[in-house]
Every structure is written in structure tokens, then in C-alpha cells.
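Per your request, structure below.
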């Protein structure tokens, strides 16, 4: 997701109309009222630490670099609680039973892109354009998958995948052209249809 945003926003200098995987969940009342979610915790930007609902600090412990299967590198900031022992909220806060303190993993680059996308999709113009994008783009891929049975690539490699997808999209366009041509022929052979 981060690499997609980076490509659209930084490389092509366009607005990304791609909702991140938790965008719709974040609009729900249950998420907005959940004070135990780290996204709602107080953050001290100057000293770079979070404060949990029980007023315990989670300072920055370290940075971590993760590389995905495509070679894209992400820099993650890891914040760790100074001590969770004896905290009455620990069962609500932590999902693991280990003695390790609560940690928060933050990808600041992705957080920046998510904030931009959230602002774009929350605007009236952004919602309208996203709705139109679903009509313009998603129908083609739905047609490709449902009607032509094209659900997986049969080749590997950037150029081979590009060629195979080009052939599949050409098949979609040929179907449209054939349907359009048949409509014109029917109107020419039947004079009544010319006025419809």
C-alpha cells in the first residue's frame, strides 16, 4: 500500500483515491470511541512519546527497517511502555499474555500518506471522484474476472505480466467493439430501429 501511495503521490504527482485497508473501519462509531486503540492516545511530538489511557509513557525504543517480498523498505518506529506491571487496563490494552511491555509500531511515511488520502476521501469532491472511479475502473476488472474468467496471471515477470494483461484487456475491448458493431448493423438492416 505504501509503495502505491508513494508512486501515485510522489512520482506521478496525483491525488491517490485508494482507501487504505482500515479506512472504512475508522469511520465507524466503535472505532472512534475506542480509547484503548493507540491511534487515539496522546502523542508528544517534541519528546516523541505516546501516553496510554493510564498515563504511562511509551517512549521511542528503536527504529526497525523491514523489506517486503518486492524489495520495498519500510522504516518502523517502535515505542515501548516504561512498565505495564500492575496496570488495571493491561487486559484491555494488550492482546498477548507475555511479560513484555506494550509496544506500538508506527510507520510515519505510511501515516503521512494515510492522512493525505483520508483528507482527500473525506472531501465532497474526493467522495464524488472515488465513486466515479469505482464505476469507470472496477467494472472493467469485474467484467474481466467474471465474464472472461481471467482471475490469475499464468506468467511471471514484469514484461510477461504486462503482455498478458494487455491481451486480456484487448479481449475486453474487442467484445465491446463487436457488441457496438452488431448494434449498428441491426439499425441499418431494420429502418424502425434507426429512430429508437
Amino acid at each position: 500500500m505504501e509503495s502505491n501511495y508513494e508512486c501515485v503521490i510522489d512520482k506521478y504527482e496525483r491525488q491517490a483515491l485508494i482507501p487504505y485497508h482500515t479506512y472504512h473501519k475508522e469511520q465507524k462509531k466503535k472505532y472512534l470511541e475506542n480509547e484503548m486503540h493507540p491511534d487515539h492516545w496522546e502523542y508528544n511530538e517534541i519528546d516523541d512519546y505516546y501516553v496510554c489511557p493510564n498515563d504511562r509513557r511509551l517512549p521511542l525504543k528503536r527504529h526497525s527497517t523491514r523489506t517486503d517480498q518486492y524489495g520495498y523498505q519500510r522504516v518502523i518506529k517502535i515505542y515501548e511502555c516504561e512498565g505495564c506491571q500492575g496496570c488495571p487496563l493491561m487486559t484491555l490494552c494488550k492482546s498477548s499474555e507475555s511479560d513484555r511491555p506494550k509496544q506500538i509500531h508506527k510507520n510515519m511515511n505510511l501515516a503521512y500518506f494515510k492522512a493525505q488520502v483520508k483528507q482527500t476521501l473525506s472531501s465532497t469532491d474526493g467522495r464524488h471522484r472515488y465513486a466515479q472511479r469505482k464505476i469507470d475502473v472496477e467494472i472493467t476488472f469485474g467484467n474481466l474476472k467474471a465474464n472472461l474468467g481471467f482471475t490469475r496471471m499464468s506468467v511471471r515477470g514484469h514484461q510477461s505480466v504486462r503482455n498478458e494483461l494487455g491481451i486480456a484487456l484487448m479481449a475486453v475491448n474487442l467484445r465491446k467493439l463487436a457488441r457496438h458493431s452488431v448494434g449498428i448493423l441491426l439499425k441499418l438492416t431494420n429502418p424502425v430501429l434507426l429512430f429508437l
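The CA atoms of residues 88 and 94 lie 11 Å apart.

Regards,
D.
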